[in-house]
């Protein structure tokens, strides 16, 4: 969600403007709980992480120098709090950001063999379908969305975190790189693997339903 | 000069770079040239866009009034401490 000009918001917050804080909560709270859930196992713990984050934000507000955006700063605090809580609960594992899983995005069996006509192009019978004909009610129903969520939950941790921040919470690539302290290329590779797998699951699901 | 043709199998690995706008101008051209004549890959990209859109709908979730009130109380406490300093 996009907030108004951050500088004026920051100023209002420092002046104790309650409405400014309300706007901040409305913009980020729900998203923060979901992001915390990437690290901690229960909603209660996620809410604890978020609550602690707001305390940290208020404490740090006067020292915040605006070297990153307010949003990036808030989510970075959140990540740290969530990790600390996960550690306390014995649930934290080091995340393998650089792990190279070089699985192809699409099963190689769907492409023509080398030495055939048009090698490495789609086999006629295995071409991706046009989804335009699928009614919106099917695409947007609860079951489809649950299925997508399950596909995301099944991803390796690094991919699950990146796709959630980018495609569910709609953070920008810059924001995600800053919050997770990973390189832009690394972030893009993880996003690609994640999206490719979710697409694949969705394709399977839609072909069966 | 002809740049080598981009096969479908390679194109599917470049989709995110394409959507993120990080392909080199030459690769971008090859990518679009391929899409122009390949319905399978056009469908693939469209599927990917649909997947991204649907993933974006997972965030529909509202804050309970109680939770919001608790946070406002937090802010009021902070404000009091500020003015006490």
Q: Give a quick account of the main beta sheet of chain A: strands, pairing sense, barrel closure.
A: none
Number of helices of chain A: 9
Number of strands of chain A: 0
The oligomeric state is heterodimer
Mean pLDDT, all residues of chain A:
91
Cα distance spanning the termini of chain B: 73 Å
What portion of residues of chain A belong to β-strands?
Answer: under 5%
Taken in chain order, the helices and strands of chain A follow as HHHHHHHHH
Helix content of chain B: over 70%
Key structural traits:
heterodimer; A: mainly alpha; 9 helices; B: 85 residues
Plain-language structure description:
The complex is a heterodimer of chains A (209) and B (85). Chain A has helices at 6-14, 18-36, 43-60, 70-88, 136-140, 142-153, 157-168, 173-180, 184-208. Chain A is mostly helical and 209 residues long. The mean pLDDT of chain A is 91. By secondary structure, chain B is mainly α. Chain B contains 4 helices and no strands. Chain B has helices at residues 8-20, 25-37, 39-55, 65-84. The model of chain B has no long low-confidence stretch (mean pLDDT 87). Chains A and B meet through helix 2, helix 3, helix 6, helix 7 and helix 9 of A and helix 1, helix 3 and helix 4 of B.
Secondary-structure map:
The complex is a heterodimer of chains A (209) and B (85).
Chain A lengths: L5 H9 L3 H19 L6 H18 L9 H19 L47 H5 L1 H12 L3 H12 L4 H8 L3 H25 L1
Chain B lengths: L7 H13 L4 H13 L1 H17 L9 H20 L1
In short:
The complex is a heterodimer of chains A (209) and B (85). Chain A has 209 residues and is mostly helical. Chain A has nine helices and no strands.
